[in-house]
Amino acid sequence: xxxxxxxxxxxxxxxxxxxxxxxxxxxxxxxxxxxxxxxxxxxxxxxxxxxxxxxxxxxxxxxxxxxxxxxxxxxxxxxxxxxxxxxxxxxxxxxxxxxxxxxxxxxxxxxxxxxxxxxxxxxxxxxxxxxxxxxxxxxxxxxxxxxxxxxxxxxxxxxxxxxxxxxxxxxxxxxxxxxxxxxxxxxxxxxxxxxxxxxxxxxxxxxxxxxxxxxxxxxxxxxxxxxxxxxxxxxxxxxxxxxxxxxxxxxxxxxxxxxxxxxxxxxxxxxxxxxxxxxxxxxxxxxxxxxxxxxxxxxxxxxxxxxxxxxxxxxxxxxxxxxxxxxxxxxxxxxxxxxxxxxxxxxxxxxxxxxxxxxxxxxxxxxxxxxxxxxxxxxxxxxxxxxxxx
Amino acid sequence: xxxxxxxxxxxxxxxxxxxxxxxxxxxxxxxxxxxxxxxxxxxxxxxxxxxxxxxxxxxxxxxxxxxxxxxxxxxxxxxxxxxxxxxxxxxxxxxxxxxxxxxxxxxxxxxxxxxxxxxxxxxxxxxxxxxxxxxxxxxxxxxxxxxxxxxxxxxxxxxxxxxxxxxxxxxxxxxxxxxxxxxxxxxxxxxxxxxxxxxxxxxxxxxxxxxxxxxxxxxxxxxxxxxxxxxxxxxxxxxxxxxxxxxxxxxxxxxxxxxxxxxxxxxxxxxxxxxxxxxxxxxxxxxxxxxxxxxxxxxxxxxxxxxxxxxxxxxxxxxxxxxxxxxxxxxxxxxxxxxxxxxxxxxxxxxxxxxxxxxxxxxxxxxxxxxxxxxxxxxxxxxxxxxxxx
Lengths: 390, 390
Prior knowledge:
Aspartate Aminotransferase, domain 1; homodimer; 390 residues
């Protein structure tokens, strides 16, 4: 018997229903895992509770208030006064793309200083927005000296320098002293990836002279992924206003987004309201702790992790001087199957650590102590599991 | 006293902390509202509960299983067998942009048949991807005849025809009979916006000959916004493979996304895992109900709404023949301040309805009965509130 839906009001033919892709599933029932990989990390229970709250409309005055709170707290965590500071309705990669899409004018030179996987991603993305991409690279695990950056800037004279502060693929932290001044001297904008630093590692965007930056919600901030910090300062905003063609990305066009996040409140897209609830709560908890205390907590727990790892005979891939407190690359001992170890940890202990990415695949594990997960007891548990598995 | 974080391991200068943007906030405390606007709609309690579950890693085998379940159930709800069916990690507008970004080759002609605000958005977006955009329009609230579409196709000979099935700004539903055949005859791809139809109005993508389609999670599907259905069939996939330059959008590049959602499981971005939990549960409930029954429920409750609105002297903007069951545009009576009425409903009754958008601003209200909210008691409550407020 043909279904009877809508025959009087829908003008389409009444067609047969195909059930080949229909599923009969039990309610979602997931293991409770400790996520000590490169992210997502576990979110604070308060954050998770907020994500399950009844949604509000994306133009509801109460929701607009939540957006304003988020903007302000993002500025605090990043240490910037940039008016154009928002959360992009996508993951960190969308926020990364937003910085490039809004900063690049077709045909101009963009210099990417890449020290790992996410620097390489910047190279790929920048090319898609019509940039003449130039790049310099470092072995994975090392960082650039200011002299190296200056030399490349003098060679290529780029309109934009983009680099990664905290390289999630290597665990290295790029020193920022002098880079902002260099960019100003050369008349270039500075784009900074703070995906694995924001909230867990000192970020002083204004003092550093950063023009555009992006991050994610699921690492130092301690939320779940999906709503991602984005900021741009006056120099970048002025350049955006000088465009004669629309930004080549509608969803991430800051001209449009600024009218939704700003006082005009012009509808752009339907915000992922429940994610913003979680982000607001995670940022509230970070304000409660004080960002300088959060940075210190990450540093203290990371140093404890390194010491404990060394005590069981493991060593770190990155020099201590440049080592991220949020994400540690641990060398895989000779003869050990890295993926087998992490798979066993996941299966037998409900503990996730990350495998190496790109050049470091098979050579390191990636251990994250980020946001809510940066706690001493998590280090003790991890070490205990490492002892059993190795 | 200067903060002491990281002086031994971070090479950046230790800088003062600025607290000007720091917030001291109470825990999130939001009103419990009934959302009968154009979306988001309220999500089923089971869906909200799932969104607050402990996250898994985006490459965790258990999470990859959730992704597979989502893919299959999206195909069922849309009535398609397209292999490349996924949820995009952004809202419906991102999924809209994904169809254009992956379908348009620079310089080719794209015909947009626009009958409202979201058709106009397609025009804006398509231009950003290098299309020669041609458009035809209808007064807001009307739909295209097949003859009108054929005439425009013969005039412009486009490589792509894009149109909106369920126009959220007008409440009109475009009949789909013959459009797919027309596009095949003319050698064009067919892109269809099903944002306000999927799950609530019959969508037979394969029978209709649709090549690419997109939707959202927060309407007929009954989830919260942020993870958005996308599908492309073989003809569109073949065209994508024939590109000689990368898709001009990294985040939405289906070549990359297919490697994450497919058997290769190559990392692309960190999926918004908690949103996918909610989407999986909403789709599971839809499978449990049966999509044909969900469509019927939307139709039955919409007809009851129309009848009840007429009984209190209100009239509908769209001819009954083309009226969407998910979203109804209600004419604002002469002399009534539309925005004041909806604002009072929100403030005094915790009830959200939508205001008119674009050409229909001030002329209609937009009432949604979508997903979990398509229930008879919601109609009764709305009518009761209308009686008190008007």
